[in-house]
TrEMBL record:
GO MF assignments: 4-galactosyl-N-acetylglucosaminide 3-alpha-L-fucosyltransferase activity
This protein's name: Fucosyltransferase
One Pfam family from the record: Glyco_transf_10
Fucosyltransferase C-terminal domain residues: 162-199, 203-222, 226-264
UniProt keyword Lipid metabolism, yes or no: yes
Main location: Golgi
Superkingdom of source: Eukaryota
Self-association state and partner proteins as the record states: Homodimer.
Gene3D superfamilies according to UniProt: Glycosyl transferase family 10, C-terminal domain (3.40.50.11660)
Similarity section: Belongs to the glycosyltransferase 10 family.
Lineage: Eukaryota, Metazoa, Chordata, Craniata, Vertebrata
GO cellular component entries: Golgi cisterna membrane
Keywords attached to this entry: Disulfide bond, Glycoprotein, Glycosyltransferase, Golgi apparatus, Lipid metabolism, Membrane, Signal-anchor, Transferase, Transmembrane, Transmembrane helix
Length: 273
């Protein structure tokens, strides 16, 4: 599966190219009475390094999000023309030797992409004053990207209880204690003493969402009760469809923006330009 930190930055990149509408000129008349209006060139966003070598198709921005306002590329020959260069923090070498060359074009902005909490990201000396914009989950980032909710006056279609034969699932890729996962692993072990917890991609009525560290803006879930109390409550909900259905009442007028694992962040990172 895709690591936790890559799943987070998937949403980040699909934020900002939409501020540059691009409508190609189509000539339906072989003899137009007026010349076509020249279309502005799309700004170029250069992805300097594929994040941890995780690759996708740039056309997904158009396919899945109808975003086509900038030219996304990993072609370094376009460096001197690029309006912005996106650089993923975890891929920066300690000696900074793999950063773009200097001097940079005067119009160009460097965007620092930070997807994981400080606990799981090393602080690299020498990055101060190199970047023009920050792109992360933090609310005070230059480009703050969080899950989008859409509120509608018209109620969404009636919710149908999903047919799932498992009660509780947990998706996890990082169990390294050195990265701050010890607390959630301990809770998982305690909870497993009271209720069956399925680990992996399985259809369940409830999914556990445990971050591996606590930092500002990084975690939004409410504090869980002790494992025994939570287990008893989930078992009770499993027998009460009416109570279970109330957890989906918000979906009557609110919908969450779906996203892919990585692509979404890059598609939108020009919104603040």
């Amino acid at each position: 599966g895709v690591p936790d930190h890559l799943q987070k930055w998937q949403f980040y990149l699909s934020r900002n190219c939409s501020s540059y509408p691009y409508i190609p000129y189509v000539n339906s008349d072989s003899s137009p009475t007026t010349p076509p209006t020249a279309q502005p060139e799309k700004p170029i966003l250069l992805l300097w390094v594929w994040p941890e070598n995780y690759r996708w198709d740039f056309s997904d921005c158009k396919t899945f999000y109808n975003i086509d306002g900038c030219h996304l590329t990993d072609d370094r020959s376009l460096y001197n023309q690029a309006d912005a260069v996106l650089i993923y923090h975890r891929d920066i070498k300690w000696d900074l030797s793999n950063l773009p060359p200097s001097p940079r074009p005067p119009f160009q902005r460097w965007i620092w992409l930070h997807a994981e909490s400080p606990t799981n990201n090393k602080r690299i000396p020498g990055l101060e004053n190199l970047f023009n914009l920050t792109l992360s989950y933090r609310r005070n980032a230059d480009i703050s990207v969080r899950n989008l909710l859409t509120i509608s006056k018209t109620p969404n279609k009636k919710f149908e209880l999903p047919k799932k034969d498992k009660l509780v699932c947990w998706f996890v890729s990082n169990i390294d204690p050195s990265t701050g996962t010890g607390t959630r692993m301990k809770y998982y072990e305690e909870l497993s003493e009271h209720i069956k917890v399925n680990v992996g991609w399985i259809a369940c009525r409830f999914y556990l969402s445990f971050e591996n560290s606590i930092h500002k803006d990084y975690i939004t879930e409410e504090r869980l009760p002790n494992a025994s109390v939570l287990a008893q409550y989930l078992l009770q909900l499993d027998k009460d469809d009416e109570a279970y259905r109330r957890y989906f009442a918000w979906g009557k007028h609110v919908s969450a923006t779906p996203h892919l694992v990585i692509v979404n962040q890059e598609c939108r990172c020009f919104r603040t330009e």
